[in-house]
Structures are given as C-alpha cells and as structure tokens.
Amino acid sequence: MSPFFIERNIMPKTLTIIGMGACGVAAFAEAVTRLCYEPGDGDPGDGDPGDGDPGDGWNVHLVERDDELARGLAFGTEQPGHLLNTESRLMGLYDREPGHFRTWLEARRAASGTPLDPDGVEYPQRREYRVYMREVLDKALEQASTAGIDVQVHREEAVAIDGDHAAATVRFANGTTIATDVVLLTIGTPDPNRFGNLTGIPGYIDSPYPAHRMTEEIARDRPVVVLGSGLSAIDAVMTLLDNDHRGHIHLVSKEGMLPRVEIPAPETGYDRQHFTLENVHRLIRERGSAFSVVDLFRLFRLEAETAAGRAIDWQAEDRYGGDAEAALLHDIAAADSGDEPFQRILTAARHESTAIWNLLRPADQKRFGQWLAPHFAAARFVTPMVNARRLADAMARGLLSVRGRIDETVASEHNTGFTVRFEDGDTLEAPIVVNATGQATTLDEMKETLVKDLLAKDWLQPHPVGGAIAHRATCRIISATRDAPRLYALGQLLNGELRDTNAVWFNVECAGRAIDDILRQR
Model confidence over 413-452: pLDDT tens digits? Predict the structure, then answer.
C-alpha cells in the first residue's frame, strides 16, 4: 500500500496552490501523480484507506490572478527573441524527469516536419514552452478528474491568509474566501519596489514584462536606458530589436557585465575533481573550522584551471565595469571553440550547489553576494548563442552599448526625461527608462500584497540573505508563531535558503519535496 494513504483520515485533505506559473503547474502535476499511486485494493468493503478512487476526498484549489493558467511572467511573452535560458534537456516539469520537455519538443517538431537533431542543443522560444506547460496542466486536470480529486480554479488575486495550524482561510481581492488545510505559495518572481522615485513619471516602464508595454509605449527612434545588464535586461533588448527599434539602447548597471554565452550541452561531459560537496565536507572535518566564501572560490579556481588545463588570468576574468563588447565577442568565440570551463563546472555542480551554499555561514553568504554573485550568475545563467550574436550585431551597428558603475537614476527637471549618473561623474540623458534589474530578493522589497500580509503576521520570517526562512528539505515555511497555518513555498520566496531558485529544474525538484511532505503530514 502507498505510504501516502496510511491514516488518511487524519491527514490534510485540502491543498491550495497560489500561483499557476511553472512552479504551480509542477507542484499540481506532482500532487496528482502521487495521489494516483494507490489504485485501491479491490475490496471496497473492508474500510481500507486504499478503497475506491485514489484521490477521493481530496480538494485542490488552484489560484491564479491572471486570466490564463500555465503562463506566468517569464513564459507569458509572445516575443520571438525571448528564448529559454536553459537548454531544453533540463526543462521538464515532472519531478525526476528533467528530459520530459525535450522528449515533448522532439515529438512536436517531428510532427510539424522540422525534426530536431537528436544530439543538438535547443533553446526554444518561451511561448513554445508555454504550450508545453499548458499540456502538462491539462493532463494533470484530466488525471485528477479520473482519480476523484476535486479541483477548483480561482482566477483571483490572493491578498491575505488567516487561520491557524488546524485550518486556514485564503482571502481574495474581491472579498471572497476559501478554506484550506495547507497553502503552497508559488507566486513566481515578485517585482521589486526599487526606483519608486520614478513611478508615475512619463517614460518610465517599471518592468520589461509584459513586453507589449514596451512595444506600445516606446517609439522606434527614441533612445532608451535599460536599467540592468542581466537576462531581464537582455529580454528588454530583444523586445526592442524584435520591434525594429532604431534609437540607441543603453544598458546600465552596477557591474556592467553581460551574461556569458551558452556552450553546447553544458549539462554533460564534465566530472568534477575539486569543486564538490565531498571536498567541502572533508575540508570542514579536517580543518575543524567553518567553510568560508574564500574557501569556496579557491575550490572553484582550482577546478576551473584543472578543467581548462592551464593557468587562468583571474584578474582578466573580473569584468566588473569592463569592456562588455570585448567580453561578449570573447565569450562567443570561447563557446564556439568549447574553451569555456566555468559553465560546465557550475552546471555539473547544480545538484550540490544548494547543499554547498548552506554550509556557508550567513556572514559568508552575504560576502558571496557582495564579491562573487555577479560573476557566478554570469557564468551560470547564460545567453543562448542566437541572442548573443544579435547583441554583438547591435553593438557593431552602434545601436547598443553597455556601461557599468551606475550611481543613480533620477527624473530630469520638470519630469521631461531621466538623468543617469555614474560613479565617475558622467551623466546620461534619456526620455525612456526601462527597469530590468530583475526580481526582488528580500521580502521587504517584494510588491506582493500577500507577502506583506504574511510579514505583518510574522508568518514569514526574513532570511538574512533573502527570501523567507524555511525547512530546506521540505520547503515548509518556519513562522515566528506556533499557531501559524501550514505554509510551503517554492521559487524566489526561498532564495536565501535555496540558492538556485531561478532554475526551473531545481524548482521542480523542490516541488517534489514539498508535495511529498504535504501528503505525509498527520
């Protein structure tokens, strides 16, 4: 008999998932899969919990404030230049099946008469991934119906949660409520409340998503400042290029660093020797002292030079405030030649990265954010080659520039435009500013009304580095009060506890852990 159905009469029977983007779909699909483990024992009269339909008595509420489920901020775009930033083989939405999306994609392309190279690297458009997400959701809804699981969809915004450990109530913006036993927060990537001084000023766009705001509000011949130089900023550039933008595009940020360029199949072909969880544990045990961010970088540096087969000029690898165009051309050439060890190492270490992260003390986690995080992010979250070439072409045509060491961005006199000031005293004037600095990290900078509600009740506790405090193995929120409702979270809400929360494959694994714990509760 399945362990999930032992003593079902005292287990929670109602689960509410708030947010139906990639994390929400993955969690729902996993819950349905696990509730269907037990098909009944064939004797409906013996009172065994396995009798009847496997999901009988279970209720699942799916809450999404947008009109469409299985969409989300990242995958809701229609822009052809918005590609997946992770290779297709790692994007499956089923736990322990990272290759499921690739299998789906190969079948879809074969059916359309454009088959994929079985050994080729593929970074499809995000709008195609949205089709996959919807099919996974529809399949789970169908399975739930067959299994007797009562699923209700609420297209509302959840703004508050009330109740206690025994039962909770989710309140919507329209004033209605639903009762639940457990809440799983999968709210995606909350927008930050940065640059509040610019809000409401004509020409300021607070996010590159949804993309239609940029295409509708920005004239093609106007110069544009994009705040940020990471993947969100590149999305903003791709939106403009897709729309045949002709005005100059300025990417400005503290670091002035672009992500590196993807290499073929980074998830295969490298066996780490030094940068491993085993070596971290051994170092702690033999030395008898804490593992520091300096130790982390030393292990990575040793691994990189081993992988490269040569000494690396680490001073040259510090791109903070450097020549972004030269770095981009170098990265394109390195990706073409396969001489790029950093991505291969970090991708190979992906299943151990959170465990290594959690062996750092909070002080060292903060130092990592200050010293190394931009460099690690640039090598871990990379640009697909096709978009890298588009960036290089835009730079060569004088259409795009990247600059670091930004100091502040303010409204020009009379609110007729914007002034960007740099640390060296230079200024840049522009009529349009797009905030593409990425998602909020700390709870207090998240705009979400629901997050503010839970913070006010001490049901979310800020992690010292970002996100909320939670049980790492189960994703269950640790509240400051003992009578708090049973809350779980996935994704950016746990970015301090679980470092890799920008990666779909990692969030899918975490969804499996959370659902496992929810269904085992007594």
Answer: 877 899 999 999 999 999 999 999 988 899 999 999 999 9
- What's 382's DSSP letter? -
Average predicted confidence (pLDDT) for the chain: 91
- Contact of 474 with 494, CB cutoff 8 Å: no
Three-state SS string across 292-328, please? CHHHHHHHHHHHHHHHHCCCCCHHHHCCCCCCHHHHH
Return the sign of the alpha-carbon dihedral for residues 480, 366, 193, 439: negative
Q: What are phi and psi of 178, to 5 degrees?
A: -135, 150
How far is 279 from 522, CA to CA, in rounded Å? 38
Read off the pLDDT of each residue in 91-95 and give the average, rounded to a whole number: 96
What confidence category does residue 51 fall into, taking pLDDT thresholds of 50, 70 and 90? low
Give the integer Cα–Cα distance in Å for 409 and 390: 27
Residues facing 251 on adjacent strands: 226, 402
Residue type, 506: F
pLDDT at 54: 58
What does residue 407 show for φ and ψ, rounded to 5 degrees?
A: -105, -55
**DSSP strand E in 129-255: where?**
150-154, 158-163, 168-172, 177-180, 182-185, 204-205, 224-227, 249-252
Dig out the tokens for 363 from the structure: 């002080």
DSSP 223-253: -EEEE--SHHHHHHHHHHHHTT--S-EEEE-
The pTM assigned to this predicted structure is: 0.90
Cβ–Cβ contacts within 10 Å for residue 116, how many? 17
> Which 8-state DSSP code applies to residue 423?
T
CA 508 to chain centre: 11
Q: What is the CA radius of gyration of the chain?
A: 24
Residue 199: DSSP 8-state: T
Write down the H helix ranges in 381-474.
Answer: 385-396, 449-456
Q: Rounded CA gap, 304 and 346, in Å?
A: 10
What was the pLDDT predicted at 42? Answer: 41
Tell me the three state secondary structure of residue 162. Answer: strand
Contact 161, 454 (CB under 8 A): yes
* Beta carbons of 358 and 473 less than 8 angstroms apart: no
Q: With beta carbons less than 8 A apart as the criterion, state whether 268 and 343 touch.
A: no
Q: Which residues pair with 159 in a beta bridge?
A: none
Asked if omega into 210 is within 30° of 0 (cis), the reply is yes
CA–CA separation, 299 vs 283, rounded Å? 10
For the chain, report the end-to-end CA distance as a whole number of angstroms.
17
